[in-house]
Amino acid sequence: MKKKSFIFLITLGIVAAVAVMESCRKNDFKSGSSITPFKLEVPEGFPQPQDLFKDNPITKEGFALGRKLFYDGRLSRDGNFPCASCHQQFAAFATFDHPFSHGVDDQFTTRNAPGLFNMAWHKELHWDGGINHIEVQPLAPITASNEMGETVNSVINKLNQDGKYKTMFAKAFGDEAITSQKMLKALAQFMGMMVSAQSKYDKVKAGKLNFTDAEEKGYTVFKNKCASCHTEPLFTDLSYRNTGLTVNPYLNDYGRMRITRNSSDSLLFKVPSLRNVFITFPYGHDGRFFSVGGVIDHYRSQVVNAPGTDPLVRNKIPITDLEKYELQQFLRTLTDSAFINNKDFAQPLE
Amino acid sequence: MKIRFAAFLIILIVTSTLSCRKEISDEGSNYRIRLKFVPKANGENLVEGKPYLNPLGEDFSVTKFKIFIGNITLIQDGAVKVAAKENEYFLLDAFDPASLSVETALSGNRFSDIGFQIGIDSIFNVSGAQTGALDPTTGMFWTWSTGYIMAKLEGNSSFSTETNQAIVYHIGGFKTGENTIREVVLQLPGQQDWILEKNNVTEITIEINIDKWFSSLHNLFIASASATMTPGELSNKYADNYARMFAPLSIERTP
Lengths: 350, 255
Known about the structure:
The structure holds two protein chains of two kinds. The longest helix of chain A is centred in the first third of the chain and has 28 residues, at about 1-30. Helices cover about 40% and strands about 0% of the residues of chain A. Chain A has helices spanning about 1-30, 60-70, 85, 140-145, 150-160, 165-175, 180-190, 200-205, 215-225, 255-260, 290-300, 310-315, 320-330, 335-340; strands at about 100-105, 105-110, 240, 270. In chain A, the strands form two sheets. Chain A has a two-stranded antiparallel sheet. By secondary structure, chain B is mainly beta. Chain B is built from three helices and 17 strands. Chain B has helices at about 1-25, 210-215, 235-240; strands at about 30-40, 45, 50-55, 60-75, 80-85, 90-95, 100-105, 110, 115-120, 140, 145-155, 165-170, 180-185, 195, 200-210, 225-230, 245-255. Mean pLDDT of chain B is about 90; it is low at about 10-25.
C-alpha cells in the first residue's frame, strides 16, 4: 500500500512537471499547429548555399503558402500580374520569348526577367545586385509602378479577406495574423527551394549518361572560353561584369553603377547562369539577344570596348563556327526538364 | 524518504515553472522613460503644408516628415550607463501624434544626459524581411537597393528645381562611407543627475527643429538640392544635420 501510493506520487509529479514544461515550450513556439520541416537539398558538387533560412526555417506549410502567393494575382494592383506572370515555370521561371515582361496598364519592365532557380546560392539579386536578401526582393516587383503596381499594405488587406490565407498563415507561422514579414518569408521559402540540378549535364557528371561527341567537344569549348565567368556548377560566378555591351539609349541603364555610384561599375551587370539557357531566351539585361547564337556572335565579333569592359572579353573570344555549333550542343544539355515539370513548383490547384 | 522525494518533485515543478516565467518577463527593467517629440519650424509647432523660411532664406513647407530613432540610453559623466532594450526602434511621424511619444523600460535610473540613435543598424538592412516598426510597409524601405530610409522629408519650396516645386529628401545608407546612422546625446537641464523612480514614468520633451535640416553643420540649399534619394555624400550631410535637430525642452515625472 505504502509502495503503491509512493509510485502514484512519483507518477503524478512527473506528469505535472512534464505538463508544465510542455506549456512552456508551447509559449516559446507560439503554436498549437504542427509544422513539417522541409529540407533544401544541396546537389552533389554544389557549394553550401547562402545562410538565408536561419531565421526562416523551411516547412512544407511555409512552402505551400509561398507557392500560393507566387501564383496569386492579388499581389498586383489589377489582379492580373502574379509573380508567375513574368516567371513562368516552362521557361525556368523567366518570361518566355519576351525581352521585357508585361506589367499593369500595358506597361513593360525595363529589364529582362531572369530565370528563378538555385536562388539560395545568390548573395545578391537583380541584374545590378541591388537586393541583398531573397526575402525583400518581392517588394521590388510588387511596388514597381510598371510591374505589379501595388502597395504592400493593399496586398495584406486583400489577403486578409481570404479565410484560406488565414488558415495557411496560421499553419505556416503559428498564428493567423497576416504580416508583410510572413508573406515575404513564405515567398522566400518557395523560391529558395527551387533547385535546378537534374539536367543531362548533371546526369553525365554523376556518371549516369554520356555526352554525344558534339556535346563533349562543346563542353571543352565551354571550359576553355566561357567558364571563367559562367563557373560550374552554378554556371555563374555571381560577379558583375561589363561584357562590352553599349548602353541602351532608350533605357540608359548603367547597371551596377546605380547601386555603388562608382563610375568603374558603369555597365556592369550580373553574370547570368547558363543553366536552362535554351529556354530562357532572349538574353542580356535588356533582352537584346534573341538567340544563344546571337550571344556567341557578340563575344566573337561585337564586343565594344569601354573603360570598364572586362579584360576577359576585351579582345573578343575567338570561337569558330564549328565550336559555336558544339558549344550550343553542350548548352542544350543544361536544360532541366525535371525542374520545369516539377509539380511542386506548379500553380497549386484550388 | 517519501517526503524527501515529494519535496524534490515539488521543487522540480516550481523551478520549471519559474524558468518558464523568466523568459517571458523582462525582469530588471523597472524604470520607465517617455520621450515626447515636438516637431517645430521657425520656433512654432510644425503645421502640415504651412510655409516657413529656412535659415538660408528659402521658403519651404513640409507634407511629410518621418525619422527612425532607437537604442535609447541613459548617460552619466559622458558614458553610457544604461541601455534600453537593444534594437528597439521607433518611427516618428511628424503628423501622427501617437508616433511622437515613445516609451521604454530601463534597468538603471541615474543619468545626466539621454542618448539615442537615428537610423537602423546595418544588420537589419541585410537580414531580410523585418516586422514591427521596421515593417517595409511604412514606406521607409528602398526596394531598388535594399536598405532603410532613415529619415524622410517631403514638401514644397519656390526654390525647388523639381516638378511641382516639390522637395523630396529620402536619406539612407548603412554601408561604410555612406552611413547615415547618427548618435544623438542630449544634455538635460539641471546640474544634478536625474533619477528615475519605480512606478513613475519620467517624460522628456524633445524639440525636433526642422530648420536645422537645411542648415546646421552644413548649409544645404534647396536651390541646389531639391531632391535626394540615394545614399552617398549628400545624404551623409543631411544626416549630419538631422543629428542636430534635437534639443531637450523639459523633463518631468508623471505618477
